[in-house]
Design goal:
The chain is an alpha/beta fold. Helix content is 39%, strand content 13%. It has a domain of 242 residues: Aldolase class I (TIM Barrel). It contains 15 helices and 14 strands.
Length: 413
């Protein structure tokens, strides 16, 4: 949140100045930004940069947030909104919120067992959880440890047999959907993340000192065996690259620049359940996904971590929803921090929103309970805004309720 929103007026004393919760108790966080700040205090700098960092100048990362400010709601008034709800249906199954926890890798660097914690929070909230190929748990572990609706994300890596192994494990575990990520064929340059290391897999001296300043994190994550490994891919890596420390530096080189729509077609033939393509921003690519028989697409710029000049997904949503919303399930991610952001996406034609960093902040701040707190914050905000808009359900939201234009800054009229 911009600092200007929190600057006190000249008449306020220092004692009454507005400020965020300064402590480490995630339960005191009133919004996702406050939860983010709690999370920052609990993890060392290198882990934080892994979560927060974007590509190059981080223009796409910033644009993901800024794009929401360009849309304003026009509420209806004198509407009875008692009994309102946020229920929706995704792939024919009702869920309590229009949300999915997105696939994110190396969650074990935030909390030991972080993937299972996120999945449990999702199950408790009645929404799907998507496990990453580069997670620290396998699909069957998530199903046993958390239950609920489990999806599996797939990267195409240059490791013979890996794709079939991941797909077969996901099928055997009963995963509802396979989410094929297509926008990481060439790994992004996340410079702030790279600055944490003096050499591949070796932390810079200042980051080592910072780790020593987080003893609780060390006891949780590092003791007794160090960072958890990338269990879905380690059997396909050379022996010297199978630890988390060495894998972090080796895996980016394995991303396959050769992936094409032929790979999607083969997956469609191989995978018997819902198939989602993640990494789309071009309407023509959505049309191709529809023709191949995909069940869903995720509009995303990979959280601002790949192409730095990419548009924010919410900017592309209206055009894609108008053309394809009745033919394929549309998910969108990128910069969601408020319940109002979620409702804007639904009004513009998304069927559901994928959450990445918002729930990771909760995980870092308070484990499973922290992730649940993040979902609770967003759900409460969305419910309140729905009522303020004069709506009883998500079905009442339409593009006509939104106005687009540059936000008016203080002092400009």
């Amino acid at each position: 949140m911009p600092a200007s929103r929190w600057v006190s007026s000249s008449t306020e004393s220092a004692a009454t100045r507005r400020r965020y919760h300064p402590g480490r108790d995630f339960r005191r966080a009133l919004n996702i930004e406050e939860l983010r700040r709690v999370a920052r205090r609990r993890v060392p700098g290198f882990a934080w940069e892994y979560v927060e960092g974007g590509a190059e100048d981080e223009l796409a990362l910033a644009r993901n947030r800024q794009a929401f400010d360009g849309w304003r709601f026009v509420p209806r008034t004198l509407v009875d909104t008692t009994g309102r709800h946020l229920r929706t249906s995704v792939f024919g199954r009702e869920q309590s919120l229009p949300l999915v926890i997105a696939p994110t890798g190396l969650n074990g660097v935030l909390r030991r067992g972080g993937d299972v914690m996120l999945a449990r929070a999702a199950a408790a909230a009645g929404i799907p959880f998507c496990l990453s190929t580069v997670a620290n748990a396998r699909a069957d572990e998530i199903v046993r440890g958390a239950g609920g609706r489990v999806w599996m994300q797939l990267y195409a890596l240059n490791a013979p047999g890996l794709v079939e192994d991941v797909v077969a494990r996901a099928e055997a575990a009963g995963c509802e959907a396979l989410v094929f990520t297509t926008d990481a064929n060439v790994f992004g340059s996340r410079e702030w993340d790279r600055r944490s290391f003096r050499a591949p897999g070796k932390l810079a001296p200042r980051m080592l000192l910072d780790v020593l300043g987080h003893p609780r994190w060390m006891l949780d994550v590092m003791v007794p065996h160090g960072l958890p490994p990338f269990v879905n891919v380690m059997d396909f890596l050379p022996p010297e690259a199978r630890t988390a420390k060495s894998g972090v530096s080796r895996i980016p080189a394995l991303f396959a620049p050769s992936i094409s729509w032929d790979d999607v077609a083969r997956l469609r033939e191989r995978w018997p359940r819902k198939l989602v393509i993640k990494g789309i921003l071009d309407p023509a690519d959505v049309e191709r996904a529809v023709r191949i028989g995909c069940d869903g697409v995720v509009l995303t710029n990979h959280g601002g971590r790949q192409l730095d000049s990419a548009p924010a997904p919410i900017e592309m949503l209206p055009e894609i929803a108008r053309a394809h919303g009745a033919r394929i399930t549309i998910f969108v991610d990128g910069g969601f921090r408020r319940g109002s952001d979620i409702l804007k996406a639904i009004a513009l034609g998304a069927h559901a929103v994928m959450l990445g960093r918002a729930t990771l902040y909760g995980l870092a701040a308070g484990g499973e309970a922290g992730a649940s707190h993040a979902l609770g914050i967003l759900g409460s905000e969305a419910d309140r805004v729905l009522g303020q808009l004069g709506c009883r359900s998500l079905a009442d939201l339409t593009p006509a309720m939104l106005r687009e234009g540059a936000p008016t800054m203080p002092g400009t009229g």
